[in-house]
Amino acid sequence: MTIETKQLTVARAAKALKAREFSAVELTEQFLENITAENPNLNAYLEIFEDSLEQAKHADEILGRGEGGVLTGIPIAVKDNILIEGKIASAASKMLENYRAAYDATVIRKLKEQGAVFLGRTNMDEFAMGGSTENSAFGATKNPHDTERVAGGTSGGSAAAVAADMTLAALGSDTGGSVRQPASFCGVVGLKPTYGAVSRFGLIATVSSFDQIGPLTKTVEDAGLMFGLISGIDPKDSTTLLDESRQTSEKEKMTVGIPRHLFKEGVDAGVLQAFEKMAKKLSDRGHRIVDIELPSISYALSCYYVINFAEISSNLARFDGVRYGLHVDGIDLLGDYTKTRGAGFGTEVRRRILLGTYVLSAGYYDAYYGKANTVRQRITNDFLDAFKTVDCIATPTTPFPAFRFGEKNDPLAMYAADIFTVPANLTGMPALSVPMDPVVRDGATLPVGFQLTAPHRGEPALFHLGKILEI
User: Fold this and answer.
1) In 214-346, which ranges are continuous DSSP H helix?
2) Going by C-beta distance under 8 Å and a sequence separation of 6 or more, which residues neighbour residue 416?
């Protein structure tokens, strides 16, 4: 049986499975065929799980009893830094190339309880460091819209898998835009939830105070469905938030603030044109558009990367070749450490560990890390002040469309691509990227994204406005 999957969404597939229009096995087989056809060229998946059809058979048994939830039988891809018991979780690094997870991440447990079908693990920048998936130890992921360009990062494999019709939905993790930026580059929907809305238990840590697991989907409706099922308090993660803190309603007509002072330089003209068209769409639907100022936002990138490097240095200290992961013999214990970490970590990871160790050192802690945390609070206060008069803040997701492989060889140029996405991680606020009109570059039609940011626990407002933008 051939199933037309291009227009299929999670919501539509769930209804079709309930109606027995096709089985979970048939749906999974179709996506496995799609993967076989597309993945050798795109390298979105690092591994296809051999038991995916067994998972689908189990889902059909549940559906056959008239039971099951929204995701029962729904094929899902999982970023390679989210643990699935018994499966390799390498974080796209040689350091963990053969590491098998001993337990399920909380989000995986919740999806298993729903009866979701896990197709495989997707490619990413090593240990979630980068913005292009060029830093994977297992090869870069190509953009389905132009294979000479990057898919974005760090969740590039998950975004490409959804865009190339190799899954209905995927999980990614967002440290500074790692769900939203590849969603923009690949033309899909990406959600970074409020910090603490989704458990990080079972997520290989990059920057613990920034990281959030979020969905990549074809539609805003699907993103809302996924978020509702993976969110909630978790006793295994003390940073998770009580459900009572979630906003349950949104205004019918909202005020959307636009910090146009950020668009004065470095933003592609085509991206700005598409952005203004989307803003007008909201205005035409009765929502109020106003200009706002975020006074401290110019410090966001510097602040973000100082904290990013510092927490990476701390979190990755555990990979020493002694406890688990790669081990390379040296002439002594120190030699074991240096050889293991030199062989196991790629260039970008080593760069960030070195810089992070520097900013945490005794002579520079207050000058860099301490000051960055002070600036982080100032930026958060700017957003809180803005949200006294507006309901959401809108920007492009990225300043430009997907770039060619090797085009951003300068690390600072790569970091600058995160200008619109890092504030949501610094402030802990939720943000949603929705596709807008594509731009044409060198004969290629390339997606770009429209980003909405809401106050803490303001995901309902994001979904409300996001659905309008899809129409």
Assistant:
1) 220-230, 269-284, 300-315, 333-344
2) 266, 301, 399
Distance, in Å, from the CA atom of 86 to the CA atom of 102, rounded to the nearest integer, reads 6
Pick the CATH number of 1-471 from 3.40.50.2300, 3.90.79.10, 3.90.1150.10, 3.90.1300.10: 3.90.1300.10
State the pLDDT at residue 251. 80
Residues 6+ apart with CB under 8 A from 432: 180, 189, 190, 191, 192, 220, 223, 451, 452, 459, 462, 463, 466
Residue-wise pLDDT for 352-367, tens only, equals 999 999 999 998 999 9
The pTM assigned to this predicted structure is: 0.96
423 contacts 301 by C-beta, under 8 angstroms:
no
Residue identified by tokens 């290629």 is 444
* Identity of the amino acid at 133: T
C-alpha–C-alpha distance, residues 467 and 220, integer Å = 6
DSSP assigned state of 167: -
Q: What angle do CA 378, 381, 385 make, to 5 degrees?
A: 140
Letter string b/e over residues 265-304, b meaning 16 or more CB atoms within 10 A of that residue's CB = eebbebbeebbeebbebbeeeebebeebebebbebbbebb
The DSSP code sequence of 32-82 is HHHHHHHHHHH--EEEE-TTHHHHHHHHHHHHHTT---TTTT-EEEEETTB
Number of neighbours of residue 440 by Cβ within 10 angstroms:
10
Hey, CA dihedral for 156, 55, 19, 31, is it positive or negative? Answer: positive
CB 95 within 8 A of CB 345: yes
Q: Could you count the other beta carbons within 10 Å of the beta carbon of residue 174? A: 30
Q: Following DSSP, what letter does each residue of 429-442 receive, concatenated?
A: --EEEEEEEEEEET
- Identify which of 418, 450, 405 has the alpha carbon closest to the alpha carbon of residue 131: 418
Give yes or no for a contact between 20 and 179, defined as CB atoms under 8 angstroms apart.
no
**Amino acid in the structure at residue 91:** A
Q: How far apart (Å, rounded) are the C-alpha atoms in residues 92 and 122?
A: 9
SS3 content of the chain, % helix, strand, coil (to 5): 40, 15, 40
Distance (Å, whole) CA 188 – CA 90: 25
| DSSP-derived 3-state class of residue 200 | coil
- Return d(Cα 394, Cα 21) in angstroms, integer: 40
Query: For 385-435, how does the pLDDT look when each residue is reduced to its tens digit (9 = 90+)?
Result: 999 999 999 999 999 999 999 999 888 888 888 999 999 999 999 999 999
- Inter-CA distances, 463 with 101, 178, 400, 441, Å: 33, 19, 24, 30
Give the count of alpha carbons within 13 A of 281, CB side only: 17
